[in-house]
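Checked the freezer inventory, then went back to the computational side. Two predictions to log before the end of the day. The first one is the construct we discussed on Monday; recording sequence and C-alpha cells without edits.
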Amino acid sequence: MKTTLGVIFGNRDFFPDHLVTEARKDIQTLFQELEINPIMVGENDTKLGSVVTYEHAKICAYLFKKHQDEIDGILVVLPNFGDEKGIADTIKLSGLKVPILVQAYPDDLEAFDVVRRRDAFCGKISVCNNLRQYGFEYTLTHQHTSSPKSESFQVDLKKFVSVCRVVKGLKNARLGAIGARPTAFNTVRYSEKILQAYGISVSTIDLSEVFGAAGKLSDDAARVKDKLSEIKAYAKHDSVPPPHLIRMAKLGIVISDWMQANDLNASALQCWTSIQQNYGVNACTLMSMMSDQLIPSACEVDITGVVSMYALQLASGFPSALVDWNNNYANDPDRCVLFHCGNWAKSFVPDIKITTAPILGTALGEENTYGAMDGRAQAGPITFARVSTDDLHGLVRTYIGEGQLTDDPLDTFGHRAVAHVPDLQSLMKYICKNGYEHHVAMTMGSVAEVLDEAFTTYMGWDNYHHS
C-alpha cells in the first residue's frame, strides 16, 4: 500500500514566487519515483498552490481533512523563507495528528540575488519555532537544508515514510493474546491499560476455546487438507508423524479464523505447557508461518514482545522474530547466541525444518513437541528492539540497537544465531539494571534511526538507543 503524505508549500510574498513552482515539480517527480501519494492544494486553489495567508491555511486544511483517513504524514516544503504562521495554522486546522517532516531548500552561492535568494535556512528555524509553540512534534532532515533532488533528502524521506508507517501501525495496533502466560514467566507481565493509552488494543482467548474448536474439525475437511498442504510446503517435515501435522493444521485454522474475526495484526501465544499436555504439539511452525506472512507471533504470551516485533516489521518491511538473549559466545564479549525453540520466520532461516523441542520434551514428552523448528539464521545486519510497560511509573520504556548475525560456528538445535553487537556488555548491564525482559525482537536491516524517531518523537516513549 502506498504511503500518502499531505504536502504544504511555504511561501512569502516578497520572496521569488517561481521557486514555489519549481519546488512543486521537484516534489511531484520525487513522489512518483518513490511511489508516494501526495495530497496538496492545486496551483490555482491558492497562490501557486502555496500557503501564505490564513485563508490559504483554511483551504489546505480543508483538503487535508477530506483525506484524513488516507494521510500518513505531512511534508512541509520551504522553497523560500515561508510563512511560519500559515504552516502551523494549516496543521492545527486540519486536526491531523501525524508525523511532520520539515524540509528547507539550500541557497546557491551563485544565486544570491533578489531573483533566486531563498533564505529557507532561516525560515526553517521560524517554522519549527511555531510548530513547537502550537504543540506539534516534528522530524528534521539530517542536513539543515537539502534539495529534494539530493540523495541526502531522499534518504530522509524514505526514513520518514517508515516512521509514518510505524506510528500509524502502533497507534492502531490490535493484538491477540492466546492463552494465559506461562505461570513460571513473571517476566512477560505487562499492562493492557498502558498499551491502550497509546492506541494498542489487546483481545484475549482461552486455550480451551481454541482446542475445543480445533477438535470439532474433521481430518478430511477441505480446509484442513488445504492448511496441511500449506504446512508441508512451508518446511521440511519428514520426521513428523502425520497425525501431528493434522493437529497443527486444525490449530492453525482456528487461530487464523479468530484473528480475522477480531481484525488482529499480531499475536502472542502460550506455547507451553498447556498446548503440549492438552493438545500434543508445539505451535512454533504456525507462529513461524504467520510471522513470515507479516502477521508477527510471539512466544509465551509476550504481548509487549510482539509490539516490538510489529514495530520492527513496520520499520523494515521484513518479517521479525522474538529471540532470547540466550548464551555467551566463548570468550568474545561482543558476541552472543540468540535462540528459541523455533518460531522464527522462514525469511530468517531459509533451510528450515519441523522437528521436536528437546528441552521442553524432557518434561512434557518429546512426542508432544512436534511442531518446533530447527535451523540456523542467515548472516546479515539486524536491528533489535524491546518494548516494555513500566507499570510502577505508568509509562512505556524501550531500547533499540543494531548488530550483525555472523557465520561463526555454532553446534546446537532449535532456531539459533550468533550475533555481534558492539559494546554488548554495556547493553547487557543496561538491560539488567533496568529490569527488561530476556526476550528481544529482531529484523533484518538497519532501521534503528526510524524506531528512535517513532518511539521518542511521536509515541512519547522513554527510549534508549544503544550505539
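The second is the one RB wanted added to the comparison set:
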Amino acid sequence: MAESNFIDYVKIVCRSGRGGRGSAHLHRAKYIPNGGPDGGDGGRGGDIILRGNRNYWTLLHLKYQRHVFAGNGQGGGINKSTGAAGEDKIIDVPCGTVAYNAETGEFLCDVMEDGQKVVLLKGGRGGLGNVHFATPTRQTPRFAQPGEPMREMTVTLELKLLADVGLVGFPNAGKSTLLASLSAAKPKIANYPFTTLEPNLGIVSYRDGKSFVMADIPGIIEGASQGRGLGLRFLRHIERNSLLLFMIPGDTDDIKKEYEVLLNELATFNPEMLDKQRVLAITKSDMLDDELIEMLSESLPEGVPTVFISAVTGQGITELKDILWAELNSEDNRMMAVKREELVHRNYDVGMLAQDFADWQPDFEDEIVDDEEYYEEDNYDEYDFDE
C-alpha cells in the first residue's frame, strides 16, 4: 500500500491563526494636547477550511503535507487602524471526505459536494483597541485586548468513495474481471489467487447514452469487520453506494451460506448497510450447464434479484445491466438516496486510528511562542471577548 497512488486516509496537524492584539495608542498631534485613544482593533486569525473539489479522487496530494497552519492576525495600529487578518488555509479534498479528531475519534464534518466549504478550525478573534474602552470617567485608557489564542487539532481525513454500485465478494469472486468487461477501468487481473489492494472505479455505459459508476472493493474475508485482512480499511467505501452487487462464484459449495457471511460482515461493520438495495450475481457461470444452474436456483437467497453471469463469455451481462439500472432508479432506491445524504457517521475507534498511524510523525518543529507580553493578565482578564 505504501507504493500505491490511491491514498484514502491521511493525518494532518491543523492550527488556526491567533488573533492580533488591539492597540493601546494615544493620539498625538501638534496643537492637540489631549488627543485621546485611537488604538485600532487587531485582525482576526486565519481559519482552517475544508473544500470539496471534484478534480481530486484520492488524498494523495495530502500524503506528505502533515501540517497546515493558518496565518496570525496583525496587531491594531494608530488612527483606529484595524490590523490585517491572518491568511486562511484551504484544504482541497475529494467529494466524500470525512474528517475525524485523531486524538478522540470524534466525527467532525463530512464534505459531499464540489465547492462545499466547512470551517474546521476557527481563527482567534482580534482584540479590541483602547478606543473601545474610553468612558466619561476614563478618557485615556492605556490598555487594549489581546487577540484570542490559536486552536490546534490533529485531524484524520478519510475518503469514502461515491459510486452507484459497489461490488461485494470474497477474493477471486470475479469483481475486477466484471469491472474491466463493463467499463474502461483496468484493474489487475491474474490467473492465480490474490485480492485487489485498492478500490477501482469504472463508468458503465447503458442504453441511450446513460451510465452509472461501479466501484470494485478489495475482497472481504470472514472477520473483516473485526479488522482481519484488508476489509475493515475498505468497507467504508461502500457505505455511500446506492446499490450493492454481491458476487459469488458458481463453483462455491454453498452459495446461500457465503452470501450470508458477506451480509453479516457488512451488518457488523455498519447496520445501516442492511437497508441498501442488493443484487446477487453468480459469476463464472460459463462452467455451469443448464441443469446445474436450475439446481442452484432452488437454493439461492430469497427476495434478492439474481442473475447468472460470465464476464469472459458475456453471458448474462446485458440482463445484469438491466437489473442494476432498474434497481438504481426504483422508488425504494430514491428514498434511500435521501437517507444516504443524511448518513450518520459513528465516532472512530481511537485504537484503530493509533494502529493505522503507528509510524506517523509530524514533519515540523513546533515554534515556542513567548506569550508573556501578548497575554498580559491585567489587560486580558478584565475584559471578556463576548462583552
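For RB: The chain has a mean pLDDT of 78. The chain is about 20% helix and 20% strand. Let me know if you want it refolded.
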